Amino acid sequence: MDxxxxxxxxxxxxxxxxxxxxxxxxxxxxxxxxxxxxxxxxFGVEKRLEVSIAHLAKIGGSSxxxxxxxxxxxxxxSDDIPTSYVPFRNANLLCIAxxxxxxxxxxxxxxxxxxxxxxxxxxxxxxxxxxxxxxxxEGTRPGTRISIRTPVIQLxxxxxxxxxxxxxAPLELTWSCYRNEELACGTCDSCALRLRGFRxxxxxxxxxxxx
Length: 211
What we know:
By secondary structure, this protein is mainly α. The chain is built from 7 helices and 4 strands. It has one domain (2-201): Rossmann fold (3-Layer(aba) Sandwich). Helix 6 (157-166) crosses helix 7 (189-201).
């Protein structure tokens, strides 16, 4: 949902869009790929890159990539790092995005990170993206200018839903559940955050849930 709304912002600001999808051995890999292509079709995106970094599943340490680790029930009041945290995932995603952006001479990379999630996900914090931006400046060829854009990072989920409605983002094409690929579970962290966002925004969630 956050990436979809971010894509809507990019569509408003950029001359052309290029969409990147990264599979990393997550439980809902196939369903997320479907959402990626459906949203790309919606925006008429021709430049699409789908890659795999399955080594993150081999590294493990996350309930999203290791079947031996159970996806925990949502606890939105907890400050602990949840089992769904994939160690340093966003850095891996951004490295691929920067490599591609440098080749196609893209001036900006948009990523749907949200600081509301950062109590559990350290790579969703504004400080992380500021540090990564500095690394991009040092690690690309002279004259390269690539800006890391995080347009929803300071928004609540409810504000993201409202922005999505305003921008006519295709929220019905998105997928958030960490567990399932048919009906969303409704009880993992991602589902709970999404449901709370729609509820607080006073908007009906177009996804179907088990509970």
